[in-house]
Amino acid sequence: MAAANPFSSEILTWETFGTATRELAATVHADGFRPDLVLAIARGGLFVAGALGYALGVKNLHVINVEFYTGVDERLDMPVVLPPVPEPVDLAGANVLVADDVADTGATLALVKEFCAGHVADVRCAVVYEKPRSTVKCEYAWRSTDQWIDFPWSAAPPVTAAGA
């Protein structure tokens, strides 16, 4: 069982996640943006990127692993890209849709957009949730909230922490 969260939180279920990503994809499509590839920010962005890839008919998915959060509202001083780092040549000239679960401070998205700069034709961000304090204003966000979000993939502790 997950530890009690001392912060007010919003709970996203798997069912609502399906609705959220479908609506997010519809917004991207309606805007006329046609990504050549979806760049997932691991780990939470993996789920979003997969769902958006299917909904938008984009089979080319890439992953960038960025570590920033270490716990509930606990983070490193700055985000760090972990290996393996994508090769910029693989993104060259592409319309890139960066996918993540949440734009909280915006630091992770800023790092990834900076990584893409100068290599891609266009880079836009799609997130399920965007917080008002985010320094990056995403082109596509399903909802805005200032609460902590309990995502279905991270609500329970790892099985290794549960003594399995």
UniProtKB/TrEMBL annotation:
Residue span(s) of domain Phosphoribosyltransferase: 9-154
Q: Which domain of life is it from?
A: Bacteria
Q: Which UniProt keywords apply?
A: Glycosyltransferase, Transferase
One Pfam match, given by its short name, reads Pribosyltran
InterPro entries referenced in this protein's UniProt entry, alphabetically: PRTase-like, PRTase_dom
Under CDD domains, the record lists: PRTases_typeI (cd06223)
| GO MF assignments | glycosyltransferase activity
Spell out the protein name for this chain: Phosphoribosyltransferase domain-containing protein
Source species: Jatrophihabitans endophyticus
- Print the organism lineage: Bacteria, Bacillati, Actinomycetota, Actinomycetes, Jatrophihabitantales
